UniProtKB/TrEMBL annotation:
Pathway the protein contributes to: Carbohydrate metabolism; galactose metabolism
The protein's name in its UniProt record: UDP-glucose 4-epimerase
Family: Belongs to the NAD(P)-dependent epimerase/dehydratase family.
Assembly notes: Homodimer.
Membrane spanning stretches: none
Reaction(s) catalysed by this chain's protein: UDP-alpha-D-glucose = UDP-alpha-D-galactose
Gene name as annotated: galE
PANTHER family: UDP-ARABINOSE 4-EPIMERASE 1 (PTHR43725:SF53), UDP-GLUCOSE 4-EPIMERASE (PTHR43725)
Cofactor(s) listed: NAD(+)
CDD domains the UniProt entry points to: UDP_G4E_1_SDR_e
EC number: 5.1.3.2
Alphabetized UniProt keyword annotations: Carbohydrate metabolism, Isomerase, NAD
Domain NAD-dependent epimerase/dehydratase: 4-250
Organism: Rhodocista pekingensis
Molecular function via GO: UDP-glucose 4-epimerase activity
């Protein structure tokens, strides 16, 4: 059985990817400090509790589990927080990734799949955004991800890597085992669901004066299981000897915050209580992926191609989680 070290595997995208890895014959060994992830989401392989910046602990994990590849999710991931604490973001995301790359190469591991982000592009000059678009992040979070892409490119050919630039991860495991469970939660879909369920007073629409058709910001929401699938395809690309590269992961269709609220209302059968608020610092107006490279290089095609289908899986998971909490 092929073992993969999955940093950040207790988190949202990481745990869904572990489920798919296990179903595809891999053994996912999660390496996570549990600062933002959940122990309960580590179900498909062992958990090593460790920090990305801890070289000795990483060395131990490589020696104990002998992985043939790494999938690297672990990071601090909030745009707003990164604007407030840029040094912390550089320390964890860039410093931690450098330590991981050094430990991986010292252990003889030669392939890695990295969670990058659409935030590396900054405010798009043209949309949909292809991978050759200029890289000019407008927030520290995006800057740290770009620095990691650069350090990974410099680590080749000893370590070959695919940087997957996700747009907005959304939805939940359709079998209902895991979902998006951030604390604190800052992401639009879970916040809208919590508002409609009465778990918070209202949803705040950040910005109604963007240069978009309805004035609210536009994003490309891509289902988390489709993202998981892309990680497997990227691993296979590297296993075939494929060269390192960067690949966008999005559906290619844009959804405004106002449209998103209507989709959540359709899933819930009632409107989402909402108020308008100023723009959030660091948010670009529009992020929509040109997904050609993912299709051509990896053969990736998102299976969840409608927003309603994506939101429905999130709705099912959140209402199930609420029932479980109330029953406990
Ligand atoms: N969710 C999205 O929409 C999105 C979009 C683009 C890129 N990404 C990237 O995908 C990856 C996963 O995102 P997510 O939404 O699943 O985030 P998440 O916060 O749910 O998961 C991140 C995991 O990393 C762990 N972690 C954080 N700092 C660590 C450290 N110093 N050492 C060890 N573990 C640490 C956390 O405990 C958590 O389990 C991140 O790298 C993120 O930047 C996410
Ligand atoms: O309470 C809220 C929360 C969000 N939004 C809006 O909803 C959209 C989506 O916001 P999210 O916080 O769900 O996602 P982001 O686009 O900010 O961030 C996501 O995509 C980024 C890429 O730009 C990063 O990769 C980041 O990790 C990932 O979570 C944005 O326009 C945001 O302004 C609101 O209006 N109100």
């Amino acid at each position: 059985m092929r073992t993969v070290l999955v940093t950040g595997g207790a988190g949202y995208v990481g745990s869904h990817t572990c489920k798919l890895l296990a179903a595809s014959g891999y053994r996912p060994v999660v390496y996570d400090n549990l600062s933002r992830g959940q122990r309960a989401a580590v179900r498909w392989g062992p958990l090593v509790v460790g920090d990305l910046t801890d070289r000795a602990r990483l060395d131990e994990a490589f020696a104990a589990w002998q992985p043939s590849a790494v999938i690297h999710f672990a990071a601090l991931t909030y745009v707003g927080e990164s604007v407030e604490k840029p040094a912390l973001y550089h320390h964890v995301n860039v410093g931690g990734s450098r330590t991981l790359v050094e430990a991986a190469t010292a252990a003889g591991v030669d392939r890695l799949v990295f969670s990058s982000t659409a935030a590396v592009y900054g405010t798009p000059l043209r949309t949909p955004i292809a991978e050759d678009h200029p890289l000019r992040p407008i927030n520290p979070y995006g800057e740290t991800k770009l620095r990691v892409e650069e350090l990974l490119a410099a680590a080749a050919p000893r370590l070959r890597s695919v940087a997957l630039r996700y747009f907005n991860a959304a939805g939940a495991d359709p079998e209902g085992e895991i979902g998006e469970d951030h604390e604190p939660e800052t992401h639009a879909i879970p916040l809208a669901i919590q508002a409609v369920l009465g778990e918070r007073r209202e949803f705040r629409i950040f910005g109604t004066d963007y240069p978009t058709p309805d004035g609210t910001a536009v994003r490309d929401y891509v289902h988390v299981m489709d993202l998981a699938q892309a990680h497997l395809l990227a691993l296979e690309h590297l296993e075939r000897g494929g060269a390192g590269t960067q690949v966008n992961l999005g559906t290619g269709s844009g959804t405004s915050v106002a449209e998103l609220l209507r989709a959540v209302a359709r899933a819930a059968g009632r409107p989402v209580p909402s108020v308008t608020a100023p723009r959030r610092a660091g948010d670009p107006p529009v992020l929509v992926a040109d997904g050609r490279r993912a299709r051509e290089l990896l053969g990736w095609q998102p299976r969840f191609d409608s927003l309603d289908a994506i939101v429905e899986t999130a709705w099912q998971w959140h209402t199930g989680a609420l029932r479980r909490r109330r029953a406990a």
